[in-house]
């Protein structure tokens, strides 16, 4: 019996294996302790250069956040965004991806699931007086669209001029790509966000607009403009029909708007110009030219006159532009076609004088002077920031237009390229980003009080389709009630 209880003598190779396991465990544990220690004492980054986005901040402690769990989820998000060497690992991961992702068929194609709504968070130039200045206008003859603001525009006629499915310029056929429902796709050298909408989300957005309009004084005019994005016009047929049809989504939203709200049909305003540079190929935004055609649709709906493009100073931002959709797909080899064919950011400076300031707080107690509605962006990769300097909580533009009227545009970043055109029709233009207010730890701002305080005449809600279908953005709108 005694012999049975003796511990078996280990063979030399077993002893070695045990020590290897112990050393491996201690190495991993030591590494985790080192990373944890560094995390406690290093300076956390606030921006990812590789991903071109703001990183999650450490949440402020509140008892409400502790009770509902949002405080701890915020800490988790912050750590996942800022752990040591994260930026280096992101870059190396992109390099590894190029070994096992490939593009079948003749087209350079990529479809990513659940990668959409890259414009969910705002971005702004870091200072009130950025360095650099807009460059000279492009050479004469540069194709920038027609000078007639009403050319081909059918908005407000009541007769849709939308083409038959699949006949859009530059669209590709179903056989050219393996169709999978996704949010971001690359076709050739163009990247696009693909929209999926539901009747419920569209109705909820329309209901929010109706509620906000009802809360405003009766003498204030209210407009709603939901714009399509490039995926509606340049994607394979299956990506802009059925539940992906942005035209149907916009029609559904507009059908549910009450009599208090005037719908602006930017969709039909685009159709005669689809072979022009309406949307960036590497970014989710429209170009200034696309924004201009949408602006002419607003002018038609509001009974205003849109100036011709030739009345404004044309120019372009220094350097080329690789936008948000390139960043979102840069881990994959298909993005090489985007990198090799970057965008150019053209702008149109207003024909009237402008003086722009922005405010970080709802009480507008501290104005920050800005370079102008079109500003220099030579020192930043995101050239779209040349419009209004990006997203600020409240932007106020005093103009040389002698109308005595004030327009409030409630928008996300799609409104930045659009807003400068409004300076031709209003003595004062105010841009409000609802994402900056009424959230956890943010200041409260109520639309009705804000409109009365500023003496607003017209209110325009402007959103791109991803925002109109975003539950998070909807909550920002409802927070204004």
Structure description:
The protein has helices at residues 12-41, 63-68, 70-82, 86-100, 199-214, 231-234, 246-255, 266-270, 288-302, 324-329, 336-339, 419-422, 447-454, 465-468, 471-478, and strands at 47-48, 53-54, 109-112, 184-187, 190-193, 221-226, 261-263, 313-316, 346-349, 354-359, 368-369, 394-399, 406-411, 428-432, 458-463. The model is unreliable at 99-106, 128-161 and 163-182 (pLDDT under 50). By secondary structure, the protein is of the alpha/beta class. The strands form four sheets. Strands 7-6-15-13-14-12-10-11 form an eight-stranded mixed sheet. The protein has a three-stranded antiparallel sheet with strand order 3-4-5. The radius of gyration is 26 Å and the shape is globular. It contains 15 helices and 15 strands. It starts with 11 loop residues before the first helix and ends with a helix. The protein has two domains: 38-100, no CATH class; 109-478, no CATH class.
Output the radius of gyration: 26 Å
Main sheet: strand order:
7-6-15-13-14-12-10-11
Instruction: Estimate the strand proportion.
Output: 5-15%
Shape: globular
**Structural domain count:** 2
Number of helices: 15
The helix-strand sequence is: HEEHHHEEEHEHHEHHEHHEEEEEHEHEHH
Proportion in helices:
25-40%
How many extended strands?
15
Give the structural class.
alpha/beta
Low-confidence stretches: 99-106, 128-161, 163-182
Assembly level: single chain
User: How can the largest sheet be summarized?
Assistant: 8 strands, mixed
**Kindly, what is the distance between the CA atoms of the first and last residues, rounded to a whole number of angstroms?**
83 Å
Estimate the mean pLDDT confidence. Answer: 81
């Amino acid at each position: 019996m005694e012999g049975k209880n003796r511990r078996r003598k280990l063979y030399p190779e077993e002893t070695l294996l045990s020590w290897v396991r112990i050393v491996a465990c201690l190495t991993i544990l030591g590494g985790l302790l080192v990373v944890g220690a560094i995390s406690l004492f290093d300076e956390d980054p606030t921006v990812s250069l590789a991903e071109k986005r703001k990183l999650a901040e450490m949440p402020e402690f509140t008892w409400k956040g502790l009770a509902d769990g949002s405080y701890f989820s915020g800490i988790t998000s912050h750590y996942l965004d800022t752990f040591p060497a994260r930026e280096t690992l992101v870059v190396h991961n992109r390099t590894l991806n190029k070994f096992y992702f490939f593009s079948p068929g003749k087209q350079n194609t990529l479809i990513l699931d659940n990668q959409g709504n890259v414009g969910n968070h705002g971005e702004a130039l870091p200072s009130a007086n950025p360095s650099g200045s807009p460059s000279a206008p492009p050479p004469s003859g540069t194709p920038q669209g027609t000078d007639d603001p009403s050319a081909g525009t059918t908005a407000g006629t009541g007769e849709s001029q939308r083409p038959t499915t699949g006949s859009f310029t530059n669209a590709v056929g179903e056989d050219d790509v393996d169709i999978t429902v996704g949010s971001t796709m690359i076709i050739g050298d163009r990247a696009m966000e693909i929209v999926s909408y539901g009747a419920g989300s569209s109705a909820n957005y329309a209901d929010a607009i109706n509620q906000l309009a009802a809360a405003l004084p009766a003498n204030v005019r209210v407009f709603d403009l939901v714009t399509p994005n490039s995926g509606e016009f340049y994607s394979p047929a299956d990506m802009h029909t059925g539940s992906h049809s942005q035209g149907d989504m916009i029609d559904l939203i507009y059908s549910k708007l009450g009599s208090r709200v005037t719908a602006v049909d930017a969709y039909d305003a685009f159709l005669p110009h689809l072979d022009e540079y309406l949307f960036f190929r590497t970014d989710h935004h429209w170009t200034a030219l696309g924004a201009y055609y949408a602006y002419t649709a607003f002018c038609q709906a509001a009974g205003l006159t849109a100036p011709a493009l030739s009345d404004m100073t044309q120019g372009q931002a220094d350097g080329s532009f690789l936008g948000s959709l390139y960043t979102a797909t840069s881990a994959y080899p298909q993005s090489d076609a985007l990198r090799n064919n970057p965008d150019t950011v053209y702008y149109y400076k207003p024909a009237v004088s402008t003086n722009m300031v922005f405010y970080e707080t709802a009480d507008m107690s501290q104005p920050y002077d800005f370079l102008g509605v079109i500003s220099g962006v030579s020192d930043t990769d995101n050239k779209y920031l040349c419009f209004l300097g990006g997203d600020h909580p409240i932007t106020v533009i005093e103009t040389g237009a002698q109308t005595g009227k004030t327009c409030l545009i409630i928008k996300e970043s799609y409104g930045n390229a659009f807003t400068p055109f409004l300076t031709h029709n209003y003595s004062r233009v105010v841009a409000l980003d609802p994402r900056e207010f009424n959230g956890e730890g943010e200041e409260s701002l109520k639309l009705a009080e804000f409109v009365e305080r500023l003496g607003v005449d017209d209110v325009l809600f402007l959103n791109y389709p991803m925002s109109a279908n975003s539950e998070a953005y909807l909550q920002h709108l409802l927070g204004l009630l």
